[in-house]
Amino acid sequence: MITGEIKNKIDQIWDTFFVAGITNPITVLEQMTYIFFMKMLDDKQLQEEENARDWDCEVENPTFLNGQLWVNPEAVSDEERAGVPYENLRWHVFKNFGADNMFKVVRQSVFEFIKHIGTGEESAYSRYMKSAIFLIPNARTLAKVVDGVDSLDMNNRDAMGDVYEYILGKMAASGTNGQFRTPRHIIRMIVELMEPTPQDYICDPAMGSAGFLVEAVKYIKEKHATAMYVSEEVQHMKTSMINGYDTDQTMLRIGAMNLLLHDITAPELAWRDSLSEQNEDQSCYTLVMANPPFAGSLDKGNVNKRILSYANTSKTELLFLAQFVRSLEIGGRCASIVPDGVLFGTSKAHVAIRKEIVDNQQLRAVISMPSGVFKPYAGVSTAVLIFTKTNCGGTDRVWFYDMRADGFSLDDKRAAINDNDIPDIVERFHNLAAEEQRTRKEQSFFVPVDEIRQNDYDLSINKYKEIERKRVEYEPVKDILARLEQNEAEYAKGYEELRSMLEE
């Protein structure tokens, strides 16, 4: 998790924006992301240049072209048409400029450069960066922000995930925005459970900052390294493999930048309400991983009628599950975080969506997570539902796991601890044959589908878990009373002795 030192640095950067009059948390996040991106682009090429020197070769497809000028495609003045050396656009160069000169270069050149990366092809990145606006008002503010960001280790992607988590936590604390980040280790757990491949078509219909999509890309690069040498699969990964939607253009920009830093140059990202009629996705993805919003209701009049056919409701957590089923192709897999209410809710819609997943699809696993997993954003208890789309059933038994610890304390501090069930969850899930002999007194077990049907499709683990109660022997009440009387007598005796001493 994030250290106190990094928290202090982020707080100082945050305060710098507030002092400059930028007080909207989502705007602060967006502007900070632009600055992070500028540094990460340069850090990435510096690493590539170092590797190239080690292997005595040239950097392939460099972002910054040595010895050349960059010209803004939208240049209007003679000064802009003259261009600026690529070198001046690099973080390690412009950070050493004087405050006024740096402000001019960043505002007029560097920011316009990051908006136009990849010009020449219509991509999600270019599409959503077109509307980006640089809002840092003056040289002094920019200089302080650059100094603060320069002190962060941007090469450590895990650390940057923690930074984003902390920033989004500050947004949640402000009470003005609903976005919050799924903890990085929970995302990684879900990705390891689902094992994405280079052949997958992956979608997150509520992508936010693209955490699931980025982690899927990282996993594929780690586990399928040979695929990186097959041009067709590389092209697929950079384009049609990754699909994400969100209703917040700011988060789309952040997600696009995040993916670009992981070499995903042209993902399919769209500004879209995944539950509306405008979403025509049906039977087109092989893998859905998501943590959809589940804090509210929608006007059913704005919801896609095909989604309502699965569950006639206005609750977003149920509607998203229905959309996941709809959007998957036959054989496609889904892992979704859901609030506990989805597992045991008694409304007609709750039962209908559970019945759909159990009877018409193949429900594979229900992983119950403790309520503190999403702190400090929210204290709601959640679970992970894992199912495969079949449209012909196939659920014969469901694997349940009771996660008790995720490697961090379950309070607002979320400090690192030794107890961590996540490695065990991943190992057991990929070796389900060994689970058959486990009893319901253990942390994981199977439940036959007929029993689930008999319980009105209730998927809460407590419905099926057997609690082992140990008999506790207490000493007889008369012995306790005798001991209390003895203590009282000794107290009275001491009181009288003290009183006598005072009278002497």
> What proportion of the residues form beta strands (DSSP E)?
5-15%
Helix count equals: 19
Name of the CATH first level of the largest domain: Alpha Beta
Largest sheet: 9 strands, mixed
- CATH topology name of the largest domain, in short, is Rossmann fold
Instruction: Output the strand order for the largest sheet.
Output: 5-4-3-6-7-9-8-10-13
User: What is the mean pLDDT?
Assistant: 89
Q: Helix proportion of residues, in percent?
A: 40-55%
State Rg. Answer: 28 Å
Note the overall shape.
globular
* Structural class by SSE content: alpha/beta
Q: What is the distance, rounded to the nearest whole angstrom, between the alpha carbons of the first and last residues?
A: 65 Å
Q: Strand tally, please? A: 13
CATH superfamily of the largest domain: Vaccinia Virus protein VP39
Sequence stretches where pLDDT stays below 50 over 5 or more residues: 174-178
Kindly give the count of domains.
2
The CATH architecture category of the largest domain equals: 3-Layer(aba) Sandwich
